[in-house]
Write a structure and sequence with these properties.
The protein has helices at about 1-20, 30-55, 65-85. With about 90 residues, it is an all-alpha fold. About 30% of the residues are buried. The model has no long low-confidence stretch (mean pLDDT about 85).
Length: about 90
């Protein structure tokens, strides 16, 4: 239970920082920002394992890796949402 709570808090912090670093409006609430940070943690962990270990492993990472992963996830999210928007 404590691990889940910690992951939500870390995800919220990482997601909020990523949303601050990437300019623009996003229709994400508090829960969406936390999920962005959690997804970012997995993205950052995956990229870190590829770069530093040469192995593709899906795992979580610390705050800096979570922020970097959340920025990447936010940019991908925006790209997908922009494609679905009617012209």
């Amino acid at each position: 239970m404590l691990t889940l709570l910690g992951m939500l808090i870390l995800g919220l912090i990482a997601g909020a920082i990523a949303r601050f670093l990437v300019p623009g409006r996003d229709p994400l609430g508090l829960l969406g920002t936390a999920l962005l940070g959690i997804v970012g943690s997995f993205v950052g962990g995956f990229l870190g394992s590829l770069v530093f270990e040469g192995a593709a492993e899906l795992r979580t990472t610390g705050l800096l890796g979570s922020i970097l992963g959340a920025v990447i996830a936010l940019l991908v999210y925006r790209r997908l949402v922009d494609r679905r928007a009617p012209a």
